[in-house]
Amino acid sequence: EPYRYLDVDTIALETILVLIFLITAIFHIYYAKSSFYKKEISKGYNRLRWLEYSITSTLMIFLLCVVSGVKDFDTVLSLCTINATLMSFGYYFELSKDKMSKLIALSIGFILLLFIWFIIFRNFFSRVQEVKDAGTDLPFWIYSVLIPMFFWWTSFGIVATIQFMKGGDFKKYEFYYIVLSYLSKAFMGYWLAYGMMREAN
Question: Pick from 42, 45, 53, 97: most CB atoms within 10 A?
Fold first, then answer.
């Protein structure tokens, strides 16, 4: 068989979802207790955040691939790898002092983001059509989690763009990232938990 397809059960999805929140909690507890974190912020960057995001957001992309109907194993693996690479450009953007280097990192980041979501949405709407052709429809909660998550993902890039254009106190942008991280994960967690508790159809 030329292609391998994902076969992920509900227990695995629930485990990954819990793992996302557990990893986030560990990092944030460390932020609250660590003098290293305070030193990072005082220097105008937070390297630990990009390590956290490279793990948690990649797990989130995996879940979103499953929900959207991206079936091919190699495609899912590629999207997860691209997402981790996207986080590395965020890291580079934050540490770079050169304006042009920041602009390049920001631009490549948006290209990768759009590429990831183009593939997710392309597969999703293909699955939607398959289901409609079969005479039924997808549960509403799948639309409710997937489409808004694109805007949550983009919002991080918007914060980085504002940071690039206006500069200013880094603590302000760190606060924005923390709030967006919490809200996006809580949003996705709520809808996935809701959906996984529904009767299968």
Answer: 53
Nearest CA to 81 out of 107, 111, 54, 108 is that of 54
**Separation of alpha carbons 160 and 174, rounded Å:** 10
* Vertex 33: Cα angle to 164 and 51 (nearest 5): 45
User: C-alpha 120: how far from its chain's center?
Assistant: 12
- The parts of the chain modelled with pLDDT lower than 50 are 1-2, 201
Give residue 50's pLDDT: 95
DSSP-derived letter for residue 198 is S
Burial pattern 8-19, b for ≥16 Cβ within 10 A else e, equals eeeeebeebbee
The CB density around residue 49, as the number of other CB atoms within 10 Å, is: 22
Whole-angstrom Cα distance, residue 28 to residue 19? 14
How far, in Å, CA of 112 to CA of 119, rounded?
Answer: 11
- Own/partner pairs, 5-12, CB within 8 angstroms, 24+ separation: 5/71, 5/72, 5/73, 6/65, 6/66, 6/70, 6/71, 6/72, 6/73, 6/76, 8/66, 10/196
pTM, rounded to two decimals: 0.89
Q: Distances from the Cα of 156 to the Cαs of 69, 72, 92, 171, in angstroms? A: 25, 28, 15, 15
